[in-house]
Design a protein that fits this description.
Chain lengths: 624, 159
Amino acid sequence: MRMEDRNSLLERRETAQQALSAYRCRILVCAGTGCIASGSQVIAETMRKLCQDLPNVEVECCGHVPHIGIANTGCQGICELGPLVRIEPYHYQYVKVKPEDCAEIVEKTVCRGEPVERLFYESQNGKTCPKPEDIPFMAGQTRVVLEHCGNIDAVSLDEYIAVGGYDALSKALFDMTPDQVIQEVDRSGLRGRGGGGFPTGTKWKQVAAHTEAPVKYVVCNGDEGDPGAFMDGSVMEGDPYKLIEGLTIAGYAVGATEGYIYVRAEYPNSVSRLHYAIAQAEEAGLLGENILGSGVTFHLHVNRGAGAFVCGEGSALTASIEGNRGMPRTKPPRTVDHGLWEQPTVLNNVETYANVPNIVLRGADWFRTIGSDNSPGTKTFSITGSIANTGLIEVPMGTTLREIIYDIGGGIKGGGDFKAVQIGGPSGGCLTREHLDVGLDFDTVKKYDAIVGSGGLVVMDEHTCMVEVARFFMSFTQRESCGKCSPCRIGTKRMLEILERIVAGKGTLEDLDKLEEIAEFVRKNSLCGLGKSAPLPVISTLKRFRKEYEEHIVDHKCAAHVCEALKQYKVDPDKCIGCTKCARNCPVEAISGTVKQPHAIDPDKCIKCGTCLSGCPVGAIYVD
Amino acid sequence: MLEQSYFAKADELIARYGRQPSAIIPVLEDIQEAYRYIPRELLTYVADALGIKESKAYSIATFYKNFSFEPKGKYVIKVCDGTACHVRHSAPILAAMQKELGLSAQKHTTDDMLFTVETVSCLGACGLAPTLTVNDEVHPKMTPEKAVALLQELRGEAQ
């Protein structure tokens, strides 16, 4: 039903809250991309069937009979322990739930309110954690952007309204002028969460100042291309209304009536939930013409990317929406002056917009109480790689790497040694043990040749070869370089060739100097942010792990045993029984030795096929 | 000559996204999704209908990775080689699948048109690395052995 004024929103909230509190029990099944992959939809279906069979109970109705709700929520955070299920009002958090566990959950928890203890999370020191906040991973977080993820049905507009959704928009529309909204955002010190950290308020002011423009646009960058980052995807699929509300407020503030969300094609869940949520908001009178009877109009469209990392760059993104090749252009003119279809355009990323409703509602002063002075607020990070608890987290800006990796992340997987963390994806750099106590915010991280970026943290331990990692990132940026400017197009290719030589054991020490030289050149002279930041992984690994590069070149050794070409197959003379099997099997006759005597492998002849290793009856062959 | 139904599909998509140059990407995306490739004749047809030069349409279709002029297999398998999957050893998974199907870095689709194997740079399910998708369905925590077993399962399903 369409709401025509502010009061109908309040009424709808009351009804929605009543409906929510009348549930005797709610089963919240995580429907983030991670948990769906672990089978959470089967769990939701099984629960629904089991609950439907209960006598005198209805599933999801607001009548007077006792009823039970089953909701698909946004990402609850700890993806590795999925599928995650939480039962309210008991607040029990179950992890790694299997379909065969459902009957017991319904019988004990849903019907009798008793816990199923074996499904609780057990922390590393053996402590059982019945509630989500007992889990160390959750306890260390401050959830602002992700406040609703995991707590409400991701696509239910009523549930979003029940928890205070659209309060901020109605406050902006009815109690504030567009200018006041911009002032509030400006005062909050909110900075672009896409990586650059540009002050959002400044951007909005510049677009609003274009009073002469016939039309202005609000564009949301949801092209989260950094491999290893999935925060924005989690917001789009887990709390789509919050993003839509933030965009609508931005439209009102700068005087834009059209908005676009550009989502990467690899996020099908985000695309479908955004489409659904936009339709719901339009039907309710919260989007489209004459929002809540205020006379304000704002239309929102969803554009899918088609697989080009460079489209995360502002001018490439708008070019792609216009139906062109997604290639960046020279700036100035900047997007705020000449953006989409040459018109003034506000372009921010998902997380930035998702911060806006809270800033408008709770005020700039509240926002500034979180985070550090120069970077107020929180930041979401996805922590992945060699870490005990992978997942999605949100912490105040300025939180140290140590807190994130050890307190929240639970330390290195398998108890190994922390080596480095890649921050900011292929456009970022690596931080090492000496940076563990550095607080992560925009300005601090930049000092160490890295960027906060969109917030992907990939943790690496001693089994990761830093040269291989640099090669991996370079192969990514080289592949994704759009080819428009030569420093990036040719520079990334040359750097990749050098790195490939080094991991193949064919590098020279001069290569390192050349690598440094090209890296600096590409960093200085590329056209867009992608090219300018492409050398960062090389620069930072060269600076912090030069010894590893040199080992590859001089000693032909890869200490992490990752680089295939540098692996050496050897025979342990104490174990070898001299059966001659390996010598007979070797396709290149690289193994010699006499019967009943330890054999030896000639490294010059060996092609590292591994035949000897897999065939040895006593396990005498090993890789060094 | 392409069947008439292809052109009807293109007309339907053009009607949905609007007869304007900016509709080119969404229209091509849906054609790619429907037929698992972009028939060249259809690209010419769409360009003409949207008022774009064929050369420009071609430049767009070749710029974005998700568009393909080669028909893809019934099961499109994307092995994630994002950072998180890479450090958890996704490369051997890709190698195992290519070996099982006789594919390589140059040859992506099996001759029987059943499988296409390619890589993708992050599916956003990094918590469950290494992952892969089969026609957009995510399979978590893969190993080379699990991947080969999955291929056999899909083969059985197709018969």
